TrEMBL record:
GO terms for cellular component: efflux pump complex. It comes from the Bacteria. This is Efflux transporter. One of its GO terms (molecular function) is efflux transmembrane transporter activity. InterPro entries: RND_pump_MFP. Belongs to the membrane fusion protein (MFP) (TC 8.A.1) family. SUPFAM superfamilies: HlyD-like secretion proteins. Gene3D superfamilies: 2.40.30.170, 2.40.50.100, Helix hairpin bin (1.10.287.470).
Length: 363
């Protein structure tokens, strides 16, 4: 019993004299963030698009006269590259040569008729003048007596014969089928001995002097497009320059983007093929003295988080132009603002932060 009493007393003393735990003061955690310096710069926006290559000139060459194909030239095969006015086929000429001879004879006959009428008219005029002097009177001029209507009819007949001769010669010339431009043959619909009528399709031809490319761009990019700056066309490892021709008058029906027509002069047909898809880099006019910020830092509400005096704030920037990746901002930031690079989740304005010694950089 004595031992129990002594142990209980000692336990009571220890409990009463032991130090009591005290509530410590809560230490606030300051978040560590990375920032990027905001500074104005002069930078040219770019737009990377693409489109399908098409022919600037493509025609289905048809016959202008009827007849049998006398000869298709040896070079006139699909894929062949030919020059302007090069003969590619011939329609039999004999019928058209005979028509030219007939019209040449008609011209000679019409000329003889006119000469005869002029001679008779001159004779009638001399007889008229003689009669007028013998009668010693003033006779009124009579066009019919002077054969003026007959001469006019003979002149009209000559002009008609000359026109018919020119038409017959033109028909003869059209028996030679020629390239209308420098280009390639896509397909051929005739062979030696083929019978063709006026309007029959003979060849499908494409000009190789120029290709076209339609590229879609946002309508706000169209407003700042620099049409004087060459467009960079890329097809695989091949790269070359092209020219902006026009902005087309209608937008694309699917996404309401504007369309730019690009001219590719003297294309290499071994690299650029009609119907192939190529990339194109277009350049806008230079935007001077603007903040350039990556779009990932612009929130859905159009605001941007910044750090100023080691506190977080939201700014509402005035955007001049926004590309796929970057935005050109005219105003909306205050002196001392730095762009917040770090993702902090849910935070409020005025939150205290620590700035990392490693500063973020825009790419």
């Amino acid at each position: 019993m004595g031992i129990l009493l002594i142990g209980g007393g000692m336990a009571t003393i220890i409990y009463k004299t032991a130090p009591k735990p005290q509530r410590g003061e809560e230490v606030k955690q300051v978040r560590l963030v990375e920032t990027t310096e905001l500074k104005r710069m002069t930078l040219r926006p770019e737009w990377l698009g693409g489109g399908e290559v098409s022919a600037a000139q493509r025609v289905q060459l048809s016959a202008q006269v009827a007849g049998r194909i006398f000869q298709v030239e040896q070079d006139a095969i699909p894929g062949a590259t030919l020059v302007k006015n090069q003969k590619i086929a011939t329609i039999e000429k004999q019928d058209y040569r005979l028509q030219v001879q007939q019209q040449q004879a008609a011209v000679i006959q019409a000329q003889a008729t006119l000469d005869l009428e002029k001679g008779q008219g001159q004779l009638a005029k001399e007889e008229y003048e003689l009669a007028k002097s013998q009668l010693n009177s003033s006779l009124k001029n009579n066009d019919l007596v002077l054969r003026k209507p007959q001469i006019a009819a003979a002149m009209a007949g000559l002009k008609t014969a000359q026109a018919n001769l020119a038409l017959a010669q033109l028909q003869l010339d059209r028996t030679d089928i020629r390239m209308p431009f420098n280009g390639q043959i896509v397909s051929r619909s005739i062979n030696n001995g083929s019978q063709v009528n006026m309007g029959s399709m003979l060849f499908d031809l494409v000009s190789t002097d120029e290709f076209w490319l339609q590229v879609k761009v946002p309508q706000d990019f169209l407003a700042i497009l620099d049409a004087t700056k060459p467009v960079i066309i890329t097809s695989g490892d091949h790269q070359r320059e092209a020219d902006v021709l026009h902005a087309l008058i209608e937008v694309d029906a699917t996404d309401r983007q504007a369309k730019i027509l690009i001219s590719i002069k003297n294309p290499d047909s071994n690299v650029l093929l009609i119907g192939s898809y190529v990339d194109s880099l277009l350049f806008a006019k230079t935007i001077a003295d603007a903040y350039v910020v990556e779009n990932k830092y612009i929130k859905d509400d159009g605001k941007v988080w910044v750090v100023n005096d080691k506190k977080l704030y939201k700014r509402t920037p005035k955007i001049l132009y926004q590309s796929r990746e970057k935005s050109w901002i005219e105003s909306g930031f205050l002196e001392g603002d730095s762009l917040l690079n770090s993702s902090l989740g849910v935070v409020t304005e005025g939150t205290q932060v620590r700035i990392s010694a490693k500063r973020g950089q825009d790419k």
